[in-house]
Specification:
The structure is a single chain. The chain is built from 4 helices and no strands. The chain has 113 residues and is mainly alpha-helical. The chain has a domain of 66 residues. It is elongated. Keywords: Coiled coil.
């Protein structure tokens, strides 16, 4: 099951949720934590993200889950590229490093579950 499949299911679930339970949007004054920006590599992850009522914590949890899946997928790709001596090994390792950096940023700002 791929990340794209998950995001479509998330859309279906959030589409039917009422908006009344969504967290209020933080203002500049009360926003304490700087949110990590998505890197260029992760633009494809932005597709399908709709805040249907969970607020920031749900978004963080979803993003951490997606990044964890992406990290696992990139680890497999790096291992396969290494075994096959593929020319794109360095590029894959760089993507994996960026994914890990972004994942650690999100885990740092997310409340401990």
């Amino acid at each position: 099951k791929s990340v794209e499949d998950d995001s479509f299911e998330d859309l279906e679930e959030t589409k039917n949720k009422p908006l009344s339970n969504s967290a209020p949007t933080p203002t500049r004054e009360n926003r304490k934590v700087k949110r990590p920006r998505l890197l260029e590599v992760h633009k494809e992850d932005k597709e399908g993200q709709v805040d249907g009522g969970g607020g920031r914590d749900d978004q963080d949890a979803t993003m951490i889950e997606r990044l964890t899946q992406k990290e696992a997928e990139l680890k497999r790709q790096v291992a396969n590229a290494f075994l096959n001596e593929a020319p794109n090994l360095t590029e894959l390792e760089e993507k994996l490093k960026k994914t890990r950096d972004l994942l650690s940023q999100f885990q740092a700002v997310a409340p401990a579950a």
